[in-house]
Task: structure prediction
Amino acid sequence: MLMTPLRTKNLSRLAVQGLVGLCLWPTLAWAHDGTGLVGGFVSGFLHPLNGPDHMLAMVAVGLWGAILGRPLVAVLPVVFPIMMAIGGVMGILGVPIPPVELGIGLSVVVLGAVIAFAVKPAIWVAIVIVAVFGIFHGYAHGQELPSAADPVGYSVGFVLSTGLLHLIGIGIGYLALRRGGMRLVQGLGVVIAVSGLWFVSQALLG
Result:
């Protein structure tokens, strides 16, 4: 059954309020602070939800994919988790890379900016951008995996949660665009980018 315009409008409003709520998370807890992770699948699934930096980046990948359309709307949500897995292995092995927290903060800024300006680069450029940032997000969690009681279960839960956040971003994007809401999507990009600046400042001050 088709949704009425009023119902669609209400869903769009709820989606925006939910995203803003993530940005204004009172504790602003980092998803990768501390060590000694315990558990497996459930811990991995909940881990991205405990940090607004990760949540916003993952939702942003979906939002950008919705703007870019096929094939990237399907490719980007696959590339990000794959590169996260590679980054996780790099984190476990201790492969040196630039400051991780700064890279994660910049990922939120850049992904928010490309949404805000509705940037539509070549396919390979979009893939490279998402892939590079996926490594930083994966690296942070890879450093913690050895301390988890069930690293495999934790990894599966984390990847599944990441995929769901991508789907949420795609859903919000398509819902807004269907109602002619490119400005709404771009506005969400502005909110994401500004939040990213806060994460970057914390990384620099830390």
Summary: Residues 48-205 form one domain. Residues 151-178 form the longest helix (28 residues).
